[in-house]
């Protein structure tokens, strides 16, 4: 045998072993664009087999093909759709290791508590809260049955930590996610299943840019502009706003064995915004 060829095989095997999610199976709801898409790419780069579950069929299918994954149409408000996404993982690879409950909407962007459109709020909660609950329910079933432990991750928001960052309905939905995560983590810990949330702040995804367009009345505002505004006003790291890739790397940490002793935790990805007031920084000058 050629020693050089044997060395090459050894090197390749080492590269595979260094991938943080090598051989793991992941389902990502809302994975066709934004944070979900960024995470799908990062997971695949780290060796995971990724299923993208979304209602944006063209975007989702194209992305899934590009990373060697699978796509399934999934409206998270429909329990049967979420169940089907988990079943696809089991049929495809025989197990489920990671469930990233990421799908969400901004819903009505404002309005007084005295005049809330309750139908719109109910729709918001059906996506942001019931969608998370559906994903957690069926992922838990699969992980418990498979006895392969696993990681369940849910996308929350800085709006679930402090007031004034979102509409009343949106804030309600994101705080509810954090409570659900803590509750479910108590039950699933005995099975070795970890349950955590991620709370991004001001990431200029399509959803946030759309909300900015309504809020500031500037229909042509770009993602770069939104990112700059957040970097200047919503981060202790002045001039540095958050990105979808920042959140994807946080998800990678929670999905991997690097966070093996982390559960019932809300990982805040906000440049310190919800922890301190950068307006007082003049005292350090």
UniProtKB/TrEMBL annotation:
<dbReference type="InterPro" id="IPR036291">
    <property type="entry name" value="NAD(P)-bd_dom_sf"/>
</dbReference>
<dbReference type="InterPro" id="IPR002347">
    <property type="entry name" value="SDR_fam"/>
</dbReference>
<keyword id="KW-0560">Oxidoreductase</keyword>
<comment type="similarity">
    <text>Belongs to the short-chain dehydrogenases/reductases (SDR) family.</text>
</comment>
<dbReference type="GO" id="GO:0016491">
    <property type="term" value="F:oxidoreductase activity"/>
</dbReference>
<dbReference type="Pfam" id="PF13561">
    <property type="entry name" value="adh_short_C2"/>
</dbReference>
<protein>
    <submittedName>
        <fullName>Momilactone A synthase</fullName>
    </submittedName>
</protein>
